[in-house]
Amino acid sequence: LILQLKGTTYFERDAHSVALAPRQWMIVDDGKPCAGAVSDGTEALIVMVPRTKLARNNDVLDETTMRPFPGDFGIGKLVWQFIHSIYDEVCHLEPRSEPGVVDAMSHFVRLAMEEFSAAPCTSTLTQVLRDRIKAHVMMHLRNPELDLDHIAARLHCSKRYLHKAFELEGVSLL
Q: What is the greatest pairwise CA distance in the chain?
C-alpha cells in the first residue's frame, strides 16, 4: 500500500500509468514489477501487507491494484486516516496488539477494494488519458526521443487526441 502525503508519484506497469496525488492511496502488487518516478518534495508512506491479508477474491485484488483510491471521503478516507495514524503511533503500540492492528487495517482495505470494484468509474476517458500522458512523460522525461510521436505511439492514440486531452486545462504538450 502506498499513501501519498505530498507531491505526486508516477507509476507505470505494462500499458497502465497512474499519477498518485496527495491524499490518495493505492495497492501495488509487488509480484508484478512496475516503474515509478517522484518529484522533489514528494512524501509517501509505504506499507507492506501480505497478499493473503487482502486477497479473499483475486479478481477484486487484480481489479484494484494500480488504481488510486481517494483518501478524502468514504471508506478510502478511513483507510488513509487509519494507516496514517498507525504510522504516527507505531512506536507506542504493544507487540501483542500488532496482529489486531494489521487485521483491522486489512479489513478496511478489503472494504475499500470491494466498494471500488462495485462502483462505476467516475473518470472520463479524457481524464484517464491525461493522467496516462502525465505519468508517461514523468517516467520518460530523460529520454531524448520523448516527443509527441513517441507519446502517441506508446499510448496508442493520435497526436491530435493528445492535444485534445489538455485542451480544457489551457496547456499544451509542446
A: 59
Most confidently modeled of 13-17, 104-108, 136-140? 104-108
Picking from 138, 132, 139, 129, the residue whose alpha carbon sits closest to that of residue 165 is 129
Q: Provide the 10 A C-beta neighbour count for residue 128.
A: 13
- Chain segment 43-92, per-residue pLDDT in tens: 999 998 887 787 665 666 677 788 899 998 888 888 899 899 988 888 88
Helix (H, G, I), strand (E, B) or coil at 63: helix
Predicted TM-score (pTM) above 0.85: no
Query: CA 123 → CA 109, 129, 171, 172, distances in Å?
Result: 21, 10, 20, 21
> Is residue 36 a contact partner of residue 135, using CB atoms and an 8 Å limit?
no
Look-up of cell digits 487484480: 62
